[in-house]
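Just curious: can you write whichever protein you like plus the matching structure tokens?

***
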Amino acid sequence: MGYALDPEIAPWVALLADVPITDVARARTLVRRLAAAVPRPDAGAAVSITDQPVPGPAGAPDVRVRVYRPVTAPADCPAVLFLHGGGFILGDLDMAHGEALRFAELGCVVVSVDYRLAPEHPYPAAVDDCYAALLWLAREARPNLGVDPARIAVAGGSAGACLAAALTLLSRDRGGPALCFQFLTAPKLDDRLDTVSMRTFTDTPMWNSGKVALTWRYYLAHRVGGADRAGGPAADVPPYAAPARAADLSGLPPAFVSVCEFDPLRDEGLAYAQRLVQAGVPTELHLYPGTFHGSRLIQSAQVTRQMIADEDRAIVRRLGLEPRPAPSRDSQVPWQY
């Protein structure tokens, strides 16, 4: 590895835990332990938080969601459906808590989704769960959640961004809820693994092309005939599984896309943002030099603070929120894989 990492980030690389994902059960245990060691942000009296089940997809269990509502939020405030990262195999509501709370403190209702994980539940389980949660949010928006149904956004990082992008396609194609914004950080979008960054970044910290390939295999196993590979023929993998495969990106909601310089996912994020622009979708794109997938865990770095400030500004602007000071809190960002 000889990457020109940001000088505030580089010294921390040796201290970051590597999560081996060949053993999924062990990886989940390790990530839960790491997350438990980080102080949990406290909403105090500013945000009410409730867990509840919502109706799942046909023939599937209910989907557990966690609803965050600022106590001072006006009626008809905007909402964000938040989908955690984790390479389709890791993550839960507790690990997503810091990010979901951060969005709520900007002034919107947040619905964080505990979707089913691969490899036990491969595609389409996760995206079906997330779409069921979106339908519930849209249905309950005004009568029970105090949400403006015209201001519902979807947001996620990494695999969560894949699910968020997939929901915009599903909702457009099925005539579902009209989404006002898609927020995609370090998005994982293309199972074909054929970009310069994917071929180059085989040994980047925390997340590399080998791990990306393995998590796609976990997620898409039954879509490619059970073969131990991703990147099957186009007919095998629909765009709702890998949004980069979508032939038409027109009619999608405005987008925020951010990528890290030394991330195997970098180029698919850049390409997707470019295609959104070409399809007439208003798109804001950021590339952060010297960063890698997961480097935002290093909260003290100026580039991490810049990332978070850019994200907050985009959420506030696109959802029509009143600008407010960001809470001075560390460890707001969840693990993203």
